[in-house]
Write a structure and sequence with these properties.
- Keywords: Repeat.
- One of its GO terms (molecular function) is zinc ion binding.
- The chain is mainly beta.
- The chain has 1 helix and 24 strands.
């Protein structure tokens, strides 16, 4: 017979879980195109395979415009974007990028940081190019980026199957996840891509080729599977090449399930996720996606999706 303390613990745990289930956000199923959506191209009203995105407090969208080798800013309700980095053809000069994958803000230094993937560098741009850009990390197969409140930068390295934390000015990053070769054990990755850091310094990492999302707590030697991990597929227990990952204020994990053309939501400990948006198969209608990549929330927890192969950013209003 279970001890009373154990019964009480399980009761409160189940009540907490039910409370999260009733409170969790719901979203409009028809997305609004807030950037791009005018076909693939390099005009200021177009995007070409957008990857990472972030949203500022004014709801301006910063987009890693991957195939155009630039980062663009789209102000709210604008019909065109503004180039804020790159846009001078692909290359490795300071005014060039080569397949940027992600962008984050560094509020303390009034700058933004870009993973310049093919150039194998992470580069800092200051307030609209008034100061020359700085290469802050070089010789790294960078994909995902995030920054903590102390200014440490976290970078996923697809080639070395690891995530490292970099102190400002450091020449070598500290290993914080993976680094044990390419495989599917709990201390390994197979092409880690997007990353998210929560308030407890836990990292959520899209383990792309393993079709799962891993959570690595601070100082952990291995991660736990919090989404997917049941092979590639389209059931509610599976992911198919996951990319963008973000976590809301309730701890709900949102995943861009790229090859299933949908965004999934998982609660840690659940065996199944649920489809949040994109439940209508691959396509270019307002209730469809085609290879979603980056995800972001604005300050009202509206959901934004880089709808990569539709060359647009979709906004899904919270209901």
């Amino acid at each position: 017979m279970a001890r009373p303390s154990r019964i009480i613990f399980e009761l409160y745990r189940d009540l907490d879980k039910k409370e999260v289930q009733t409170k969790k956000n719901k979203y409009q199923q028809f997305g609004i195109t807030v950037a791009g959506g005018n076909g693939k191209g390099q005009e200021l009203n177009q995007l070409s395979g957008p990857w990472g995105i972030c949203i500022d407090n004014d709801k301006s969208i910063y987009i890693a415009d991957y195939e155009n080798h630039r980062v663009v800013k789209w102000k709210v309700n604008s019909n065109t974007g503004q180039i804020i980095a790159g846009g001078n053809g692909k290359g490795n000069q300071n005014n060039q990028l080569n397949c940027p994958t992600n962008i984050i803000f560094d509020k303390e230094n009034n700058s933004f940081i870009i993973s310049d993937w093919v150039n194998q560098r992470v580069i800092r741009y200051f307030d609209q190019n008034k100061i020359n850009p700085q290469i802050i990390i070089s010789k790294i197969n960078c994909n995902g980026l995030t920054i903590d409140k102390n200014g440490f930068i976290y970078v996923s390295d697809r080639a070395n199957n690891e995530v490292r934390r970099w102190k400002q000015g450091a020449t070598k990053g500290e290993l914080v996840a993976g680094g044990n070769g390419q495989a599917n054990d709990l201390n390994q990755f197979h092409q880690p891509t997007y990353i998210f850091l929560d308030e407890d310094y836990s990292l959520y990492i899209s383990d792309k080729e393993n079709h799962r999302v891993m959570k690595w707590k601070k100082d952990a030697k291995e991660g736990i599977i919090v989404a997917g991990g049941n092979g590639e597929g389209n059931s509610l227990r599976q992911l198919y090449y996951p990319d963008g990952v973000i976590v809301d204020h309730l701890g709900q994990i949102y995943v861009a399930d790229c090859f299933n053309h949908r965004v999934m939501r998982w609660c840690e400990g659940d065996e199944e996720g649920e489809v949040v948006v994109g439940r209508n198969g691959k396509g270019n209608q307002s209730n469809q996606l085609d290879c979603p990549m980056g995800l972001s929330f604005d300050n009202e927890e509206n959901l934004y999706v880089a709808d990569s192969f539709n060359h647009r950013i979709q906004k899904y209003d919270k209901l």
